[in-house]
């Protein structure tokens, strides 16, 4: 059933998922505090060139270490943040933090990697987004070409006319756009070719059983072919084994992301990972 949420004039749908038990409600309040008080953290997961094994980019993933409940996974609190509208602040916090981190890396003469930031549908459709991004890029003096926005297929495919103009605007500003969790939504293929998107990320559900499931193999091959025909790059997410890597490499998938190379890492460990790789290249 639908009920009116106190104070903010928003409607929320109570689902059988029971997202709105007392625990979730108090979690929502805690999350607001967590954003205000900088309790959230970013982890960084490398994206690796399938051919060379060298690092090609990195995705920032938000982490919440709750003061009493301990670490809470994004799959638990992102949906809560989306339902309460808090996601806009959360995503803005992530974007700003990433830009500040990029500036820091520059100051330390670290490799200039493209850093990817996830945006939820609500954040992407928020009218202030382009202005917010412009302001933060200016304030932190980050080159927009160094930032990639990851939008899910369903985010991009809903409200297509609005989406298209926002995407064009972001592209004009110099940002990269990637289509996340590809294959799980309902892409209109005729629209896909019109979107200013550089990269498609194959959802990890197609990678998990890739070496044994012929259906998944067909899907993955088709996505790679489709993306290449549209002049887009392909990233496979959730790659955990050498066999999966070999299949993807054989089928010309450009980039690999997954535990096989590295899980998401706290910033110092990520810097260490990059430094170690650079040292190996020098040998
Ligand atoms: P995503 O953007 O598709 O991120 C990939 C997820 O796969 C991450 O989960 C990552 O830790 C996980 N992963 C990476 N390699 C492997 C692997 O080899 N095997 C498996 N099984 N999993 C792997 P995480 O960090 O828990 O994030 C889950 C989702 O939460 C993300 O999916 C994204 O949709 C959302 N999310 C995370 N950070 C943010 C954020 O800052 N803003 C928004 N709006 N959403 C975020
Ligand atoms: Mg992502
Ligand atoms: Mg994904
Ligand atoms: Mg996801």
From TrEMBL:
This protein's source sits in the domain of life called Bacteria
Task: Give the transmembrane ranges.
Answer: none
Residue span, EAL domain: 24-278
Under which name does UniProt file this protein? EAL domain-containing protein
Q: Give the species this sequence originates from.
A: Cohnella lubricantis
What does UniProt list as this organism's lineage?
Bacteria, Bacillati, Bacillota, Bacilli, Bacillales
């Amino acid at each position: 059933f639908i009920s009116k949420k106190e104070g903010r004039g928003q409607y929320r749908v109570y689902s059988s998922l029971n997202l709105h038990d007392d625990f979730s409600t108090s979690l929502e309040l805690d999350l607001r505090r967590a954003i205000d008080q900088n309790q959230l953290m970013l982890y960084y997961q490398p994206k690796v060139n399938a051919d060379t094994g060298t690092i090609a980019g990195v995705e920032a993933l938000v982490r919440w270490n709750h003061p009493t409940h301990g670490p809470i996974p994004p799959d638990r609190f992102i949906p809560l943040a989306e339902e309460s509208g808090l996601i806009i602040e959360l995503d803005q916090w992530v974007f700003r933090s990433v830009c500040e981190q990029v500036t820091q890396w520059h100051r330390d003469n670290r490799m200039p990697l493209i850093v990817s930031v996830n945006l939820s549908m609500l954040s992407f459709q928020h009218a202030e987004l382009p202005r917010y991004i412009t302001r933060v890029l200016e304030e932190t003096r980050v080159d927009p070409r160094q930032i990639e926005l990851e939008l899910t297929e369903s985010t991009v495919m809903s409200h297509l006319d609005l989406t298209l103009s926002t995407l064009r605007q972001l592209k004009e500003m110099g940002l990269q756009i990637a289509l996340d969790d590809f294959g799980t939504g309902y892409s209109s293929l005729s629209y896909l070719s019109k979107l200013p998107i550089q990269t498609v990320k194959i959802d990890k559900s197609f990678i998990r059983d890739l070496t044994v499931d012929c259906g998944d193999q067909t899907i993955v091959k088709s996505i790679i072919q489709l993306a290449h025909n549209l002049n887009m790059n392909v990233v496979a997410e959730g790659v955990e084994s050498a066999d999966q890597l070999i299949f993807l490499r054989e089928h010309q998938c450009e980039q690999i992301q997954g535990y096989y190379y590295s899980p998401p890492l706290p910033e110092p460990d990520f810097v260490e990972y990059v430094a170690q790789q650079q040292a190996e290249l020098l040998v």
